[in-house]
Design a protein that fits this description.
The complex is a heterodimer of chains A (about 325) and B (about 300). With about 325 residues, chain A is α/β, with parallel strands linked by helices. Chain A has helices at about 20-25, 60-65, 90-95, 115-125, 130-145, 150, 160-175, 190-210, 220-225, 245-250, 255-260, 325-334; strands spanning about 1-15, 30-45, 45-50, 75-80, 80, 100, 180-185, 210-215, 230-235, 235-245, 320. In chain A, β7 (about 180-185), α8 (about 190-210) and β8 form a beta-alpha-beta unit. Chain B has helices at about 5-25, 30-45, 45-50, 85-125, 125-140, 145-155, 160-185, 190-195, 200-235, 245-255, 265-290. In chain B, α10 (about 245-255) runs antiparallel to α11 (about 265-290). Classes of the chains: A alpha/beta (about 325), B mainly alpha (about 300).
């Protein structure tokens, strides 16, 4: 049974023009389709990597999974219960089970809170344990992320380095003993030299504490290192899913291929063919109904801007690509 | 209650007090303001023991005649009124009234303003709309007609003077706190608090409030200064509390006596006190202005 399932989940934001704009220039409400009809599933103890360029809807998806943003349509199921229909006490329970690690450790810690208060905040807000137990749990958690409580207990965020701050962020999510952790690019704001340390810490903690994880990144090499399965997104659509090995070694979708061929190879003698895609990523404002990659895809034809096939979550382990012309493309290639 | 918690609370209070002391002492003007306000506060607390005479008792000189309209001298440091009352004693006792009115209405108005600003800014939408239109209505309320009607209806009482001042001055603090709240609620640590399971009230009072605190203290100091000025104007026009003495009230008595052109000391003493206290409060607030807006800090 899947721990988390997203069925046909979309999130749209309306861009409403001001009164003046509407009256004088006839401005219409435009719709940003940040996430469009996504299907995905996460099994227990699994790490699902989500990759894509900025603006592809990764963070919006994270917010919906964590229950911070309701989907416009579709349903987010956690242990077969719809997050959108939860009562407030059920939602509190969901908040404990599904925790989030944020991208920017400089923005996601309250500057007026001490380290101990930041980490205790979740258990205190949800009244998980008594005050003394919270103190013990927090001290143990801080030690678990490599910040000895004796030294860091009374520190304020501005007294910490970026890496230490992100460790505090990780501790404050994991102290709640979540079943699913949503990590939204937790390394991207950190210095390259300390990324490996934080990544190892996350991997080790996920093994010790047995939580499933959605790990979002635009860095395929990190995802290849940490994830079990990989989901590739492009402008709000899920374009390919499969085990990390399959997706990276044998990409099917034209976008995934271009993405993987763009990963640098640390060998100066290797000649790479430049990716064949054209143009730049556009914005998902009032997009056409079909495949959003069609306008940049070297293999696209007329039908592509009308047809989009969704990934199927009923066979979560299969390697699938959301392209209806896969066979033709493959035959062209050979 | 575990012992560790109480120890933590005490340490926290000490730390907070120390932090504010440092903030005020970092700026020389604020330091002066702080000490002047402290002196006024001490005078207010010990007023009945400090005043050499009864405020409304005729004073006689050594020859036995009434000491009427005497300029400042050794015996009467700030002179006397036309009825021979000692102005120095009046000044000291008036400090108490003025500071009580300033502190009470400053405190109440900042509590109302902060809560309305926090709630309006955090929830937004309809709640914000309703609260801010209410603030707009109060912006349209002229102070003097308002207090005249209030006093005419309920009589010249300290409570109603305070009520009138509070109703008029909370509006500015509400607006400013609302703007700051809107800026802070966009920040990611508020989203993080939500993801950790914090309720709306917990986010407002535990996560946002400490971050608007410097601004809040700045406006608290402003509000106290404004209350003092407002009380002085109201008293000068005869709408103060008739049973107590205040600096504005002393000026009102001078006006009634018709000796404005003669008794310069009677006019100068309460005016200087008002100016000194209000200026000192503004100086203190400057320190918080620097914390609330770090760009003002000198490099």
């Amino acid at each position: 049974m899947a721990l988390l399932e997203l069925n046909n989940v979309s999130r749209h934001f309306e861009l409403r023009p001001g009164v003046v704009e509407r009256v004088l220039r006839g401005g219409k409400t435009r719709v940003i389709k940040a996430v469009e009809a996504i299907n995905l599933s996460v099994a227990k103890d699994e790490i699902l990597g989500i990759a894509g360029e900025s603006g592809c809807g990764k963070s919006t998806t994270c917010s919906m999974v964590a229950g911070l943003l309701p989907p416009s349509s579709g349903e987010v199921l956690y242990r077969d219960r719809n997050v959108g229909e939860m009562t407030s006490s059920e939602l509190n329970d969901h908040r404990r089970r599904v925790q989030m690690i944020f991208q920017d450790p400089y923005e996601s810690l309250n500057p007026r809170f001490r380290v101990s208060d930041i980490v205790s905040e979740g258990p205190r807000a949800l009244r998980l344990w008594g005050e003394r137990e919270i103190e013990e749990q927090v001290a143990a958690m801080l030690a678990g992320v490599g910040l000895p409580a004796g030294k860091y207990w009374d520190r304020y965020p501005h007294e910490l380095s970026g890496g230490e701050r992100q460790r505090v962020g990780i501790a404050s999510a994991l102290v709640m003993k979540p079943e699913l952790v949503v990590a939204d690019e937790p390394l991207s704001m950190l210095d390259v030299s300390i990324r490996a340390g934080i990544l190892d810490l996350l991997k080790e903690l996920s093994r010790q504490r047995n939580f499933a994880c959605i790990y979002v990144s635009h860095d395929l090499s990190i995802l290849a290192n940490i994830a079990d399965r990989l989901l590739i997104m492009y402008l709000g659509q899920a374009v390919e899913v499969g085990s990390v090995h399959d997706v990276i070694k044998n990409p099917k979708h034209p976008y995934t291929r271009a993405l993987i061929s763009a990963v640098p190879v640390p060998d100066p003698r290797v000649k790479r063919s430049p990716p064949k895609i054209v143009g730049e990523i556009s914005r998902p404002v009032d997009p056409p109904p079909g495949c959003r990659f069609a306008s940049r895809c070297p293999h696209a034809d007329q039908s592509c801007s009308e047809v989009f096939i969704k990934l199927d979550t009923n066979s979560p382990l299969a390697h699938q690509a959301a392209c209806h012309r896969l066979e033709q493309i493959n035959s062209e290639a050979t | 209650m575990p012992e560790g918690f109480e120890r933590g609370l005490l340490a926290r209070i000490t730390r907070t007090v120390g932090e504010h002391y440092r903030i005020i002492h970092a700026n020389p003007l604020s330091r002066i303001g702080f000490w002047v306000v402290s002196v006024f506060t001490i005078v207010a607390i010990f007023a009945p023991w400090l005043a050499p005479h009864e405020p409304w008792a005729m004073q006689y000189d050594s020859e036995g005649s009434i000491a009427s309209l005497r300029p400042p001298s050794l015996e009467f440091p700030v002179g006397t009124t036309h009825l021979g009352y000692d102005l120095f004693s009046q000044l000291i006792l008036a400090t108490r009234t003025t500071l009580i009115i300033g502190a009470v209405s400053g405190f109440i108005s900042i509590v109302i303003g902060a809560n309305i600003g926090l709630v309006a800014g955090y929830y937004g939408g309809k709640i914000d709309e309703i609260l801010m239109r209410l603030t707009d209505v109060l912006y349209g309320m002229p102070f003097l007609p308002f207090i005249i009607i209030l006093i005419a209806l309920f009589g010249r009482k300290l409570e109603f003077v305070i009520l009138a001042i509070v109703l008029i001055i909370w509006r500015t603090s509400a607006r400013v706190i609302r703007a700051q709240t809107i800026a802070i609620k966009q920040r990611q640590f508020i989203t993080a608090a939500k993801a950790r399971g914090c309720s709306n009230l917990r986010i407002i009072y535990r996560h946002i409030l400490p971050n608007v605190l410097p601004l809040l203290l700045l406006y608290a100091a402003f509000n106290i200064a404004w209350s003092i000025i407002t009380e002085a104007s109201a008293s000068f026009l005869g709408f103060g509390d008739g049973t107590t003495i205040s600096w504005g009230g002393m000026l009102y008595e001078l006006w009634l006596s018709g000796k404005t052109r003669v008794a310069w000391w009677w006019f100068a003493a309460p005016s200087l006190c008002i100016i000194t206290l209000v200026t000192s409060l503004v100086f203190v607030s400057r320190a918080y202005e620097e914390v609330a807006n770090p760009r003002l800090r000198k490099r």
